[in-house]
Design goal:
The complex is a heterodimer of chains A (about 120) and B (about 110).
Chain A (H helix, E strand, L loop, with lengths): L3 E4 L2 E4 L5 E7 L5 E8 L3 E10 L2 E4 L6 E3 L9 E3 L8 E8 L11 E2 L3 E5 L1
Parallel strand pairs in A: 2-11
Antiparallel strand pairs in A: 1-3, 3-8, 4-5, 4-9, 5-6, 7-8, 9-10, 9-11
Chain B lengths: L3 E2 L5 E4 L4 E7 L6 E7 L6 E7 L2 E5 L2 E6 L4 E6 L8 E8 L7 E2 L3 E6 L1
Parallel strand pairs in B: 2-11
Antiparallel strand pairs in B: 1-3, 3-8, 4-5, 4-9, 6-7, 7-8, 9-10, 9-11
Classes of the chains: A mainly beta (about 120), B mainly beta (about 110).
């Protein structure tokens, strides 16, 4: 089955530690995204990548970093510089703007990160 | 002013009622309008999309776009308990990968 996987589902970390969230897709999509969701806040874009080895900051990139070394993988690192990292993190992918509709984003199941 | 406004207030309705959700937006260049459904502790899934103005119907769901008023709506007829979820509106420009999301509207359908 094609889709997006995120692991782990729940993640607990101590304050001051960096943590990496995994996102893998087998949809052969070029574009991938990371969002953060807080209660009552909707989805806020952290980073996105339209092609391998390239990525752009979203609206709330401070304290986060990403890499895109493979088409199917887009890991997100939450660094100790992120002031309020506890949140629900969602990864998504879509066909790039160079071919086909770009509006539909497919989401993974999310990772709930708790930092204490 | 935020790009997309969606009242996040929870909405409780009895089973069988019509659910009406809406979003307003400020960017008149938006052309694609979407509704995502998100069940608790899950990722959102695309429910419906509409290009430009007009209506689109899919079973019990109807999406409406009024570009002149910068207003979009989602109607759910004969609502079921399985419709209980958060509904997020989203919109974008042609060929643009970035979606502008509303805050989401939690809907509870009471049996």
């Amino acid at each position: 089955d094609g889709g997006i996987t995120q692991s782990p589902k729940y993640l607990f970390r101590k304050e001051g530690q960096n943590v990496t969230l995994s996102c893998e897709q087998n949809l052969n999509h070029d574009a991938m995204y990371w969002y953060r969701q807080d209660p009552g806040q909707g989805l806020r874009l952290i980073y996105y990548s339209q092609i391998v080895n390239d990525f752009q900051k979203g609206d709330i990139a401070e304290g986060y970093s990403v890499s895109r070394e493979k088409k199917e993988s887009f890991p997100l690192t939450v660094t100790s510089a992120q002031k309020n990292p506890t949140a629900f993190y969602l990864c998504a992918s879509s066909i790039s703007s160079t071919g086909g509709p770009t509006y539909e984003q497919y989401f993974g199941p999310g990772t709930r990160l708790t930092v204490t | 002013q935020k790009e997309v406004e969606q009242d996040p207030g929870p909405l409780s309705v009895p089973e069988g009622a019509i659910v009406s959700l809406n979003c307003t937006y400020s960017n008149s260049a938006f052309q694609y309008f979407m509704w995502y459904r998100q069940y608790s502790r899950k990722g959102p899934e695309l429910l419906m999309y509409t290009y430009s103005s007009g209506n689109k119907e899919d079973g019990r769901f109807t999406a409406q776009v009024d570009k002149s008023s910068k207003y979009i709506s989602l109607f759910i007829r004969d609502s079921q308990p399985s419709d209980s979820a958060t509904y997020l509106c989203a919109m974008t420009l042609y060929g643009n990968n970035r979606l502008a999301f509303g805050k989401g509207n939690q809907v509870v359908v009471i049996p």
